[in-house]
Specification:
Length: about 230
């Protein structure tokens, strides 16, 4: 981080909707991903961490009461972020414990059952290209219609009408039909009209639950050969 600071990196902070703020590195670093800060009357939850943090960003963020993740690719800076915000608890699924490189007292391992971090804010394990992959459901999002923060667990396509489910993004290997269905089944109990993805602008702003269903149907038909 000191080398990044010397090179002129900074954090860009943008409002996505009232109560939800995107946090990304400028200029773009690594694969250009962003984190999302959910701000509620009961506290703030950070979903995913980016690999940089500075004093200006800490001052601009009005506290963090918990940190959670879409998957282990965001674990690298989680201890730094936790310490910057009064040792905020860091929630890591037990099945991904092996990917924690910096043991810290603030880390809390959870068993994978839906975990309500704050009222109306629920961490939902879906699985995928890591067994502990999770999405964050925000019941009050989208003006009360519900929003889902997904990273690339459910990855928003460029047309914003479909999503994809990949086992390996660098190698373009899809998940199996069974794994895709488990992701859909995991989020089915929750209402959500919007999806916020892991990159700037990768959002579905309406009818997002239907987009997940039709995307999964399309994947499963092709993977199983039903369209042959």
């Amino acid at each position: 981080m000191p080398e990044m600071r010397a090179a002129g990196y900074r954090l860009e902070i943008r409002e996505e909707e009232p109560g939800l703020t995107g946090i990304g590195i400028d200029p773009a670093f690594s694969i250009g991903q962003r984190a999302l800060l959910m701000q509620t009357p009961d506290g703030n939850i950070l979903y995913d961490c980016v690999s940089y943090l500075d004093a200006a960003a800490v001052d601009a963020i009005d506290g963090v009461q918990g940190i959670c993740f879409s998957h282990p690719h965001f674990y690298d800076s989680m201890v730094t972020w936790s310490r910057a915000f009064d040792d905020a608890p860091v929630y890591v699924p037990s099945v991904d414990r092996e990917f924690v490189m910096r043991p810290e007292g603030a880390i809390r391992f959870w068993d994978g059952d839906p975990l309500e971090l704050l009222p109306g804010v629920t961490l939902v394990r879906c699985g995928g290209h890591f067994p502990g992959r999770a999405v964050l459901h925000w019941a009050a999002g989208a003006e009360g219609r519900g929003a889902l923060l997904v990273g690339d667990t459910i990855s928003v396509m460029l047309d914003r009408r479909f999503v994809r489910f990949m086992g390996s993004y660098p190698n373009y290997i899809p998940l199996s039909a069974g794994q895709v269905q488990r992701i859909v089944d995991a989020v089915e109990p929750y209402d959500f009209d919007r999806i916020y993805g892991g990159w700037w602008g990768r959002n579905i702003l309406s009818d997002a639950k239907a987009a997940v269903r039709r995307s999964a149907d399309r994947y499963i038909r092709h993977i199983t050969g039903e369209d042959d």
